[in-house]
Amino acid sequence: MRLIIFDGDETLWHVLEGANISYNGEGDYIGSNDYEYSCPPDSDPDIIVRNDGKRLQLYPETRAVLRELDTRDVLVALCTYNHPAPTYRALAAWNLAAHFDYIEAVWSADKEQMLRDILSATNVQPTDAVFIDDDPGRGHRQQGERVGIRFLKRGSDITDLNQVLELIGDDEP
Questions:
Q1: In angstroms, what CA-CA distances link 1 with 14, 67, 100?
Q2: Is the whole-model pTM more than 0.90?
């Protein structure tokens, strides 16, 4: 595998209270959000707080898996149904941005187009990529399959992100 594509919400991180990285209620589909994120001093570095008090937490294995993928020279992309600005701010608060070779944050459930954009930007063939998403009833498995990318559902196909490492051979670039 040359490229691992992760969804964000409920795949790399989960909501502790309130909402995902961007969501702001029913009117959210219009425009963007200006959410800021921080990791309070002397607190768990895997928990960030949105400026409206909502909290999000990385899954326990997220950091280690991303670090290991770095050592194996695997391209890593983020494909998330979120507005770009708060996504980048959240990744910065977690100190994770450097682990991603490409970030596709779009306020849309059309992951098929996002996946196509990622493949084009990374110059990777669909058969050399895998897409991991929690797929909350939005048909992301079918979208990935239409692109030709192997899809793994977080929570059923894989239950722990460490399983992603099993897809990568130790000697693969």
A1: 26, 16, 16
A2: yes
